[in-house]
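Researcher: Final request for today, and then I'll write up notes for the group meeting. The sequence and the SMILES for adenosine-5'-triphosphate follow.
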Amino acid sequence: MIQTEMSSDNPQRDKMGQILKAAERATNLTRSLLTFSRKQELKLEQFDLNDTIKNVEIFLRRVIGEDIKLIISLKEDNFRVAADKGHIEQVLMNLAANARDVMPEGGIFSISTDVIEMDETFIKMHGYGALGRYVVISVVDTGVGMDETTRQRIFEPFFTTKETGRGTGLGLSIAYGIIQQHNGHIHVYSELGQGTTFKIYLPLMQRDAHSSDVKISLQNQVIPGGRGTILVVDDEASVNDYLKKFLTDLGYVVLLARDGQEAIDIFRAQKDEIDLVLMDVVMPNINGSEAATEIKRLSPKVKIIFTSGYPYDLINEQKLFTESSRILMKPLIPTELAVTLREILAIPN
Ligand SMILES: Nc1ncnc2c1ncn2[C@@H]1O[C@H](COP(=O)(O)OP(=O)(O)OP(=O)(O)O)[C@@H](O)[C@H]1O
Ligand SMILES: [Mg+2]
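Model: Predicted protein-adenosine-5'-triphosphate complex:
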């Protein structure tokens, strides 16, 4: 506003410009820091990854500018993933910004998609990955590339080779965090003078040819899948990670909370999307039963499955159970969990 009131020859104009630039940089940095630290805020949806790439194309073009040629080649297929659209777009934008910076004289920036099956050979050969089918996005630039020392550090927060004020070193650590949260992998190949290739792997949602439900097989057992959004609450990170992978493979959209308070917060924000809460009973601070009381206050008809490693009788004393809630003892048995979910969600067989 001040600038518009200044005459064009006002000597203070330059200083105003500086202030604006500084404010813009602060905005960007703050935004990056927020994305970097607020990891629990994924909003998962099921969508075709190719569509998302097509949608961000015009933004990518704007980021890389006119001197860099953008090539997008998508394998025509239905690449369904359960992911946070905004976050995936951000990963692509961060990669594009980096590509722009390493090709000041122009070059080629390309994005392509494909499907791969990660099997034991793949994992052994690459030293990363987990079994399953993935959509792989290859992001390639013809820029200056990087040496081995840089390559090893690029995903570190605040690692940057750019001058102060140009780079914060958060772009790739944000990308890394986002892909990890999606149970995916991001990997880089680069040599000095040879350009750079990023490979992003995101778990592909599997569709059975004969039914709309997903099925996975575990030790020769076929486990029935389902649809819907499940809020998983457990203070044990390994349990959350396992349930997320397992339920995502079954076709569910999974939200995670690490304790009762987080569960309440997420439920309050997304109660219309959440079909069922799968919650540990014994947790520090606000436990599962207290969280359930609050969650039921927000939505009386909510469906809840409690999980517990403690003896049934002790837990049952807390009178947690009504028609719409159930308890499963830990360790959770995959088939039992999958069947109970379908039952409570009333998915017909
Ligand atoms: N496509 C690329 N080619 C060569 N080097 C790269 C490429 N992408 C990233 N790097 C290297 O990795 C470093 C870290 O990248 P990152 O995106 O995390 O941070 P930044 O670009 O320096 O800063 P910010 O993204 O926060 O503005 C970069 O400074 C650069 O040295
Ligand atoms: Mg960057």
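Model: The CA atoms of residues 52 and 85 lie 7 Å apart. The longest helix spans residues 13-37.
Researcher: Thanks, that's everything.
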